[in-house]
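Researcher: Next entry in the queue.
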Amino acid sequence: METQPQETLLDQVSRRKHRWLKRVMSDPKVTPAEKCLAYIIMDRLNCVTLDAWPGQRLMAQELGKTVKTVHRVTLKFETRNYARVARGTQGSCRYAPIFLPEDDDKAVPAPRQNCPSRPDKNVDESYLEILPNKSSPILASEVGKSPVGFSSNFKPRQRGLYEAEIAKMLGNEGFGVLQRLSELDDNIVVRLCRAYADGRLGRNELIAARLAAEQMLKRRRRI
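Model: Structure for this entry, 223 residues:
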Protein backbone atom coordinates (compact mmCIF):
# COMPACT_ATOMS: atom_id res chain seq x y z
CA MET A 1 0.00 0.00 0.00
CA GLU A 2 1.40 3.38 -1.01
CA THR A 3 1.70 6.16 1.54
CA GLN A 4 0.49 9.61 0.66
CA PRO A 5 3.15 12.36 0.85
CA GLN A 6 2.92 14.47 3.98
CA GLU A 7 4.87 17.48 2.75
CA THR A 8 3.00 20.57 1.64
CA LEU A 9 3.37 22.36 -1.67
CA LEU A 10 5.46 24.96 0.18
CA ASP A 11 7.83 22.23 1.41
CA GLN A 12 8.32 20.86 -2.09
CA VAL A 13 8.97 24.26 -3.65
CA SER A 14 11.30 25.24 -0.80
CA ARG A 15 13.41 22.14 -1.41
CA ARG A 16 13.60 22.77 -5.13
CA LYS A 17 14.43 26.47 -4.92
CA HIS A 18 17.34 25.84 -2.55
CA ARG A 19 18.71 23.16 -4.86
CA TRP A 20 18.31 25.62 -7.75
CA LEU A 21 20.21 28.30 -5.84
CA LYS A 22 22.98 25.82 -5.04
CA ARG A 23 23.41 25.12 -8.77
CA VAL A 24 23.66 28.84 -9.47
CA MET A 25 26.15 29.46 -6.66
CA SER A 26 28.32 26.53 -7.78
CA ASP A 27 28.62 27.78 -11.36
CA PRO A 28 31.98 29.60 -11.77
CA LYS A 29 30.68 31.42 -14.86
CA VAL A 30 27.96 33.22 -12.90
CA THR A 31 29.11 36.63 -11.66
CA PRO A 32 28.72 37.77 -8.03
CA ALA A 33 26.01 40.25 -9.06
CA GLU A 34 24.07 37.50 -10.83
CA LYS A 35 24.36 35.26 -7.76
CA CYS A 36 22.93 38.05 -5.61
CA LEU A 37 20.11 38.40 -8.12
CA ALA A 38 19.43 34.65 -7.88
CA TYR A 39 19.28 34.88 -4.09
CA ILE A 40 16.70 37.68 -4.27
CA ILE A 41 14.60 35.60 -6.67
CA MET A 42 14.85 32.54 -4.40
CA ASP A 43 14.04 34.55 -1.27
CA ARG A 44 10.90 36.07 -2.81
CA LEU A 45 9.67 33.09 -4.81
CA ASN A 46 5.91 32.55 -4.56
CA CYS A 47 5.26 28.86 -3.87
CA VAL A 48 2.03 28.88 -5.88
CA THR A 49 2.93 30.89 -8.99
CA LEU A 50 6.59 29.74 -8.94
CA ASP A 51 7.93 33.18 -9.74
CA ALA A 52 9.03 36.34 -7.95
CA TRP A 53 8.25 39.95 -8.78
CA PRO A 54 10.56 42.27 -6.81
CA GLY A 55 10.52 45.84 -8.09
CA GLN A 56 13.48 47.15 -10.07
CA ARG A 57 14.22 49.85 -7.49
CA LEU A 58 14.17 47.30 -4.67
CA MET A 59 16.51 45.07 -6.66
CA ALA A 60 18.86 48.01 -7.21
CA GLN A 61 18.89 48.84 -3.50
CA GLU A 62 19.61 45.27 -2.42
CA LEU A 63 22.30 44.79 -5.05
CA GLY A 64 23.84 48.20 -4.43
CA LYS A 65 23.54 48.96 -8.14
CA THR A 66 21.63 51.32 -10.39
CA VAL A 67 18.39 50.26 -12.08
CA LYS A 68 20.20 50.20 -15.43
CA THR A 69 22.84 47.87 -14.00
CA VAL A 70 20.13 45.59 -12.60
CA HIS A 71 18.65 45.44 -16.10
CA ARG A 72 22.01 44.43 -17.59
CA VAL A 73 22.63 41.83 -14.87
CA THR A 74 19.16 40.37 -15.44
CA LEU A 75 19.71 40.09 -19.19
CA LYS A 76 23.04 38.31 -18.67
CA PHE A 77 21.63 35.95 -16.04
CA GLU A 78 18.72 35.08 -18.31
CA THR A 79 21.11 33.87 -21.04
CA ARG A 80 22.51 31.24 -18.66
CA ASN A 81 19.16 29.37 -18.64
CA TYR A 82 18.75 29.47 -14.88
CA ALA A 83 15.63 31.63 -15.04
CA ARG A 84 13.14 33.15 -17.44
CA VAL A 85 11.96 36.71 -17.15
CA ALA A 86 8.54 37.97 -18.22
CA ARG A 87 8.60 41.73 -18.70
CA GLY A 88 5.49 43.79 -18.13
CA THR A 89 4.59 47.45 -18.29
CA GLN A 90 6.54 50.22 -16.57
CA GLY A 91 9.63 48.03 -16.26
CA SER A 92 7.99 45.39 -14.06
CA CYS A 93 9.37 41.84 -14.29
CA ARG A 94 8.45 38.37 -13.12
CA TYR A 95 11.39 36.05 -12.49
CA ALA A 96 10.83 32.29 -12.76
CA PRO A 97 13.61 29.82 -11.86
CA ILE A 98 14.10 26.95 -14.31
CA PHE A 99 13.93 23.83 -12.17
CA LEU A 100 15.53 20.51 -13.12
CA PRO A 101 14.42 17.02 -12.00
CA GLU A 102 17.47 16.75 -9.74
CA ASP A 103 16.35 19.84 -7.83
CA ASP A 104 13.82 17.58 -6.12
CA ASP A 105 16.37 15.84 -3.90
CA LYS A 106 13.99 14.07 -1.53
CA ALA A 107 14.53 10.32 -1.35
CA VAL A 108 11.41 8.48 -2.49
CA PRO A 109 10.51 4.81 -3.00
CA ALA A 110 11.40 3.29 -6.35
CA PRO A 111 8.50 3.76 -8.77
CA ARG A 112 6.46 0.78 -9.84
CA GLN A 113 5.79 0.07 -13.47
CA ASN A 114 2.43 1.55 -14.25
CA CYS A 115 0.53 2.26 -17.40
CA PRO A 116 1.46 5.59 -19.00
CA SER A 117 -0.61 8.36 -17.52
CA ARG A 118 -2.95 10.29 -19.79
CA PRO A 119 -2.61 14.04 -20.14
CA ASP A 120 -4.80 15.97 -17.71
CA LYS A 121 -7.89 17.14 -19.54
CA ASN A 122 -8.79 19.73 -16.96
CA VAL A 123 -10.07 22.72 -18.91
CA ASP A 124 -13.56 21.46 -19.70
CA GLU A 125 -14.22 20.38 -16.11
CA SER A 126 -13.25 23.73 -14.60
CA TYR A 127 -15.75 26.25 -13.23
CA LEU A 128 -13.49 29.07 -14.41
CA GLU A 129 -13.53 30.81 -17.78
CA ILE A 130 -10.29 29.36 -19.16
CA LEU A 131 -8.91 29.39 -22.68
CA PRO A 132 -7.14 26.21 -23.86
CA ASN A 133 -3.34 26.32 -24.02
CA LYS A 134 -3.27 29.27 -21.65
CA SER A 135 -0.17 28.05 -19.80
CA SER A 136 2.82 30.34 -19.72
CA PRO A 137 6.22 28.91 -20.70
CA ILE A 138 7.90 30.62 -17.75
CA LEU A 139 6.26 28.37 -15.16
CA ALA A 140 7.29 24.83 -14.27
CA SER A 141 4.06 22.82 -14.43
CA GLU A 142 5.74 19.72 -13.05
CA VAL A 143 6.20 21.32 -9.63
CA GLY A 144 3.20 20.49 -7.50
CA LYS A 145 2.78 16.95 -8.76
CA SER A 146 3.11 14.18 -6.20
CA PRO A 147 6.63 12.75 -5.83
CA VAL A 148 7.55 9.68 -7.84
CA GLY A 149 6.39 6.53 -6.09
CA PHE A 150 3.28 8.11 -4.59
CA SER A 151 -0.15 7.93 -6.16
CA SER A 152 -2.11 11.15 -6.43
CA ASN A 153 -5.78 11.51 -5.55
CA PHE A 154 -6.16 14.25 -8.15
CA LYS A 155 -8.91 13.53 -10.71
CA PRO A 156 -9.10 16.03 -13.60
CA ARG A 157 -12.86 15.61 -14.03
CA GLN A 158 -13.39 16.71 -10.43
CA ARG A 159 -11.47 19.93 -10.91
CA GLY A 160 -14.60 22.05 -10.54
CA LEU A 161 -15.27 20.50 -7.14
CA TYR A 162 -11.68 21.12 -6.05
CA GLU A 163 -11.96 24.74 -7.16
CA ALA A 164 -15.16 25.22 -5.16
CA GLU A 165 -13.51 23.92 -1.99
CA ILE A 166 -10.34 25.96 -2.55
CA ALA A 167 -12.45 29.07 -3.16
CA LYS A 168 -14.06 28.53 0.25
CA MET A 169 -10.63 28.17 1.85
CA LEU A 170 -9.48 31.39 0.18
CA GLY A 171 -12.41 33.24 1.72
CA ASN A 172 -13.87 36.43 0.29
CA GLU A 173 -13.67 36.58 -3.53
CA GLY A 174 -12.17 33.09 -3.59
CA PHE A 175 -13.31 32.37 -7.14
CA GLY A 176 -12.02 35.77 -8.21
CA VAL A 177 -8.59 34.84 -6.86
CA LEU A 178 -8.62 31.58 -8.82
CA GLN A 179 -9.78 33.35 -11.96
CA ARG A 180 -6.92 35.86 -11.83
CA LEU A 181 -4.39 33.10 -11.21
CA SER A 182 -5.78 31.17 -14.17
CA GLU A 183 -5.40 34.23 -16.39
CA LEU A 184 -1.74 34.36 -15.41
CA ASP A 185 -1.22 30.62 -15.98
CA ASP A 186 -3.78 27.84 -15.73
CA ASN A 187 -1.08 25.50 -14.39
CA ILE A 188 -1.22 27.51 -11.15
CA VAL A 189 -4.84 26.50 -10.53
CA VAL A 190 -4.11 22.91 -11.53
CA ARG A 191 -1.25 22.90 -9.03
CA LEU A 192 -3.55 24.14 -6.28
CA CYS A 193 -6.20 21.54 -7.13
CA ARG A 194 -3.64 18.74 -7.11
CA ALA A 195 -2.27 19.89 -3.76
CA TYR A 196 -5.80 20.06 -2.32
CA ALA A 197 -6.66 16.56 -3.55
CA ASP A 198 -3.47 15.18 -2.01
CA GLY A 199 -3.95 16.97 1.32
CA ARG A 200 -0.94 19.25 0.74
CA LEU A 201 -2.71 22.61 0.59
CA GLY A 202 -2.20 24.63 3.75
CA ARG A 203 -2.38 28.16 5.11
CA ASN A 204 0.93 29.28 3.58
CA GLU A 205 -0.10 28.19 0.09
CA LEU A 206 -3.42 30.04 0.40
CA ILE A 207 -1.64 33.20 1.53
CA ALA A 208 0.72 32.93 -1.45
CA ALA A 209 -2.23 32.49 -3.83
CA ARG A 210 -4.04 35.56 -2.50
CA LEU A 211 -0.83 37.60 -2.58
CA ALA A 212 -0.25 36.77 -6.25
CA ALA A 213 -3.85 37.63 -7.16
CA GLU A 214 -3.64 40.95 -5.29
CA GLN A 215 -0.40 41.77 -7.08
CA MET A 216 -2.12 41.23 -10.43
CA LEU A 217 -4.89 43.66 -9.45
CA LYS A 218 -2.38 46.32 -8.42
CA ARG A 219 -0.58 46.05 -11.74
CA ARG A 220 -3.82 46.33 -13.69
CA ARG A 221 -4.69 49.54 -11.85
CA ARG A 222 -1.36 51.07 -12.85
CA ILE A 223 -2.04 50.45 -16.55
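Model: The longest helix spans residues 203-222.
Researcher: Noted, moving on.
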